[in-house]
Amino acid sequence: MTAEATPAPITHRRVLKIAIPILLANVTVPLLGVVDTAVVGQIPDAAPIAAVGVGAIILSAIYWVFGFLRMGTTGLTSQAAGRGEDGEVVALLTRALLIGLAGGLLFIVLQPLLFMGAFAVSPASAEVEGMAQQYMQIRIWSAPAAIASYGISGWLIAQERTRAVLLIQLVTNGLNVSLDLLFVLSFGLGVAGVAWATFIAEWAGFAVGLWACREAFQTAVWRDWPRVFDAARLKRMAVVNTDILIRSLLLQGIFVSFLLFGGRFGNVTLAANQVLLQFIHIAGYALDGFAFAAEALVGQAYGARVVRDVRQASWLTTLWALGFGVAMALCFWLFGPMTIDVISKAPEVQLEARRYLPWAIAAPVLIVGFTQMDGIFIGATRSADMRNMMAVAFVIYVVAVWMLVPSMANHGLWLAMHISFVARAVTLGVRYPALERSVRG
């Protein structure tokens, strides 16, 4: 696309062409969590399930400190593409890879402190903590691959190359599931087997990602170091990524505290919450397909300074997301109990998860608003708004936990999380008119 080219019209077909491969790719991510949980769930004990849940969510929180890398790369790359700046598009890939690999190495070096801090606030039993520690000590060595892959995915999404993202996820998660079954069920490696499967799969996925970007590496532009390290562009990237980092830390604070607060109600409730979080992860990752479509389309329209296309991209992607959210809620209502029984074989965990299943059923509809607003604001790189409104939503969540958990126990914890979903959507919605005004200059 050149700077003078007429932008392609934003249609239902174009939205779905971007969203469907991402939807399919993202669904494999929480499905992997389901398989991890189900594989260790074949052991008739709640502790291994809780350990994988605690270990996975702590590592996810650590990795998603660098979640800004995918989001920031998507927003900046899509806008560069909208302006017709091909050299900057390639330079953004190099910057993302350097940041991702360096961040992963930093986590490896700091792992003792990170794990110590995580367990200092964890109320889990000694048995669960020991298993979770073993799991994380293995998986942390694939942090460079996992984090750098965020940048690759963001770069590909910005250019509407979502089939390549689907391929990366299929290879990564397909290999992970296969190795899960081999290491745990055949070799009897238990929680360690789940960790080794993920370690191998994440490095394999990174290799596939580099292959998908091979055209960028066939020219000298990717190593144009004066452009890559241009001070003004680095500053812009740093500002956007810092805002998104703060937003991501607050968001992860909600999810980590949710799981850890659940541990105060015992291993069975903790395991049940982990089972039901798989439902929410499935819904969130699936609906992210339409949020990612918003990122790419809004970003390109924003870079081209076309307000009409910004509004059209926002509306069409949200319309499709809402339809899918309702459909997923219906599926959870119909098949939720059966899915719980597949994931966990411990009878006490099955019964406990059924008690709280209605919260998982409601989630797909409630999360549409904030996932779409996130996508729209990422595409426009309105990162300060994302940071500020996430801070407001976090405070609302903390107040809700303080008010509801003492009287409603685990039900109050679930209600507080759902309140945070709505707060994130409403606060960003209030800022949307300012986003449109900024398109004009």
What can you see in these coordinates?
This protein is 86% helix and 0% strand. With 441 residues, the protein is an all-alpha fold. 53% of the residues are buried.
Shape: globular
* N- and C-termini, Cα separation: 21 Å
Give the biggest sheet. Answer: none
Instruction: Give the radius of gyration.
Output: 21 Å
Question: What ranges have pLDDT less than 50 throughout 5 or more consecutive residues?
Answer: 1-5
Taken in chain order, the helices and strands follow as HHHHHHHHHHHHHHHHH
Binned, the helix content reads over 70%
Got a strand count? 0
Q: Which structural class do the helices and strands define?
A: mainly alpha
Rounded mean pLDDT score: 87
Beta-strand portion reads under 5%
- Please tell me the total number of domains: 1
Q: Helical region count?
A: 17
SSE layout and pairings?
Blueprint: H1 12-41, H2 46-63, H3 67-83, H4 86-109, H5 111-120, H6 126-139, H7 143-158, H8 162-186, H9 190-212, H10 214-217, H11 225-228, H12 231-262, H13 267-304, H14 307-343, H15 347-355, H16 357-379, H17 383-439
Summarize the model shown.
With 441 residues, the chain is mainly α. It has helices spanning 12-41, 46-63, 67-83, 86-109, 111-120, 126-139, 143-158, 162-186, 190-212, 214-217, 225-228, 231-262, 267-304, 307-343, 347-355, 357-379, 383-439. It has one domain.
